[in-house]
Amino acid sequence: MKIEYPNAIDCSLHPAPDNIECDVLIIGSGAGGGIAAEIFSRSGLNVVILEEGPLKKASDFNMKEADAYAELYQEVAGRQTIDQAIQILQGRAVGGSTTVNWTSSFRTPAKTLSFWQNEFGVTELSSEKLAPWFEWVEKRLNITAWLVPPNRNNQLLADGAESLGWSYQVIPRNVKGCANLGYCGVGCPLDAKQSMLVTCIPRALQSGARLFTRARAEKIILDNDKVSYVEVGSMDALGQPKTSGSFRIHAKHVVLAAGAIGSPGILLRSGFDRFNPLIGKRTFLHPVTASIAVMKQPVNGYQGAPQSIYSDQFLWRDGVSGELGYKIEVPPIHPVLASTLLKHHGESHFNLLQDFSRLQVNLALLRDGFNADSTGGQVELDEFDYPRLDYSISESLWRGLKHAMMSMVEIQFAAGAKAVMPLHMDAQKMSNWKEAKKQIEDLPTKPIRWQIMSAHVMGGCGIGNQGESVCDEFGRMHQFDNLSVLDGSIFPTSLGVNPQLSIYAIVAKLAASLSVRLGGELPKDLLIEN
Amino acid sequence: MNRRDFIKSSLGGITLLFGGVAGYQLYLESQERPFEKTKAIFLTEADQLVLSVLIPVILNGATDKIDLIKCLENIDGAIIRLPQKTQQELRQLFDLLGSVFGRLVIAGVWQNWQTATSNSLNEFLESWRNSSLDLLQQAYLGLHKLIIGSFYSEQSSWAAIGYPGPLSIQK
Ligand SMILES: Cc1cc2nc3c(=O)[nH]c(=O)nc-3n(C[C@H](O)[C@H](O)[C@H](O)COP(=O)(O)OP(=O)(O)OC[C@H]3O[C@@H](n4cnc5c(N)ncnc54)[C@H](O)[C@@H]3O)c2cc1C
Ligand code: SF4
């Protein structure tokens, strides 16, 4: 069935519209913006959605990495922290990062939510209060346990964990009619992934919401302590700002959902740091470290659901706020991503890639933000007013990275790896666990050399008590009645699980209550005790 | 400016400045893989020359016939989508590379291009990779990402590493 996108205007092709008025302006069409758009528009509110990226659909998705990175990712998938030590993957297209994410769907751990309650005074988002919202989202996006057998890449994680007696589980996914292709990261060509691109955004448009693509929110303009309007710039087909084509949107309420880095970026561009110096601080990444194994048999890690097995053996290894815990998963293995992550050249690079089809890769994502030493990064603006992240690696994070590397490599040898190499610029392939352990102990804990990545940017507009945070627990910015943040940037810490389902459910709950406050009438399925 | 003029003015000029002929030879040798410049938006002719020397070294082993033009086009296509600040940094990198090449390669670290085996270029890159200067390390990584990415995004590079490519989907 072909999905329709009525009321969508591409600002790279069209001249700037006249100034616009609406009830709710949503900036960003990703996980947070998508859910919010459906809820507001189905409540009868007049909604406008802005998205700086393009509208690309299943028919545009050709499963080629280069095209996807250029069209669907921030900075051609090469976004980095300022010191270039951490590579950041984020989406930039209708659907945001959900258009390119890997479909893993976890509820927020109860431990994380209690931590927020105890440390940040967030009582609205307890496990009990969120439970019906998780149920609503799981039904809406068809989130269920993935019953198809895992691909080899994932199965080997299970095998390794099994033989060590470590825990592992199957990952639930948000898919419908998934053909197990394995190309979720470059846009699902079958509309099987239930991303915002194929669910909530088209649903909102059918309910009358208007969508402007290649349209970037530049600045929020205040009139006393109320938002007066938002200044919008048009982008060209390359994603660069056009010299003409700016317009204004007047909205009764403005919702920031431009993702972490994006949302604080807009606030900083608007000079809001003069009201609240915490904007952009405490930005978290779930920093990821990886290890590469060469197996005897083909693994073909490009094929099949990218993530279907995880191990939480070490997620809470030292309690909630002690040493950084981590979740172990695997990434899909495609040629551009794999070849560019192997920071060698010439023969030695090609030798590593000779084993491409036999590579098995583990990754560990670390829970940052839960202890005193793990305070995250800080979003700043460059001289072009473009947001970027300064994130320095704390001592506890280095210890966590090393611990995680040990575990991942141990799993790979336990699963029968012929050789294993930590993803680190000074690492060598090792053929047994004892040697590898020694090497990992000695690996320099140096930024850039130790290759770190992130696909989970969170925080920067954290919720909590006034004076200690950017937003209240309803996502409203402190001191501003008609400005809210509804995306991953409101998290006061990272999560310990891949974030999409947490963003969906928390935003659903907050958007429903905001909708009522703005005079909207919630449809039946959303009449959930709030 | 035609090709000959370009050689004379940029490379020839630098070569003369440093009192050697190696640079000119270097350039002429690199003509074996025809250095047809592509109509690029970001990459200047000088950038393309530097890349046309580095690409075969970075991709050494991966193939015996590199489609240089395709690589250059892919690199240019990626750069013009990057944020303004990153483009500015890359501009500086390429300008620096131009001058480093002028100094190191052309001024006679290798007196003769024929003896400047890919081995010595390799070592040169390796020293950047492991340099204690962040700038050189970042230059290495920047070039690495652009060049390797431009190559492995092409279907023609996949067979050599055993990647069959995506199944074609019937809609
Ligand atoms: C490759 C990849 C794989 C992932 N895999 C998983 C997974 O398997 N499971 C999981 O749970 N999570 C996964 N994630 C993470 C998850 O998708 C994100 O955490 C989530 O989508 C973030 O939601 P968000 O609303 O905060 O921002 P996003 O979804 O990133 O949306 C923000 C949108 O705002 C737009 N924008 C930014 N600035 C502006 C502006 N000024 N004006 C207008 N628009 C703007 C951006 O272009 C973007 O489209 C993955 C992410 C990536 C990149
Ligand atoms: S694995 Fe499923 S959801 Fe992912 S791209 Fe393939 S069909 Fe789509």
How many domains of chain A, as an integer?
A: 2
Largest sheet geometry of chain A:
8 strands, mixed
Q: How many distinct folded domains of chain B? A: 1
Biggest interface between chains: A-B, 43 and 41 residues
How would a crystallographer describe the biggest sheet of chain B? none
Oligomer: heterodimer
Content of β-strand of chain B: under 5%
Number of discrete helical segments of chain A: 12
Unreliably modeled segments of chain A = none
Taking Cα atoms only, what radius of gyration of chain B do you get, to the nearest Å? 17 Å
SSE series of chain B: HHHHHHH
Report on the structure:
- The complex is a heterodimer of chains A (530) and B (171).
- With 530 residues, chain A is an alpha/beta fold.
- Chain A has helices at residues 31-42, 65-72, 110-120, 127-140, 152-164, 200-206, 262-269, 335-341, 346-354, 395-414, 433-442, 500-517, and strands spanning 8-10, 20-27, 47-51, 79-80, 86-88, 143-145, 169-170, 172-174, 210-213, 215-223, 226-234, 247-256, 283-284, 288-294, 309-310, 326-329, 359-366, 378-381, 387-390, 419-422, 452-454, 458-459, 483-485.
- In chain A, a hairpin with a 2-residue loop joins strand 10 and strand 11.
- In chain A, helix 1 (31-42) packs parallel to helix 6 and helix 10 packs antiparallel against helix 11.
- Chain A is globular.
- Chain B is globular, with a radius of gyration of 17 Å.
- The model of chain B is unreliable at 1-26, 28-34 and 106-115 (pLDDT under 50).
- The A-B interface holds A 58-59, 62-66, 70, 75-76, 78, 84, 181, 183, 189-190, 238-240, 302, 334-336, 339-340, 343, 345-347, 349-351, 353-354, 356-357, 382-384, 386, 388, 425, 448 and B 57-62, 74, 77-78, 80-86, 118, 122, 125, 129, 134, 137-138, 141, 144-145, 148-149, 151-153, 157-158, 160-163, 166-167, 169, 171.
- The structure holds flavin-adenine dinucleotide and iron/sulfur cluster.
- Iron/sulfur cluster (SF4) is lined by residues 103, 175, 178-184, 188, 190, 192-193, 305 of chain A.
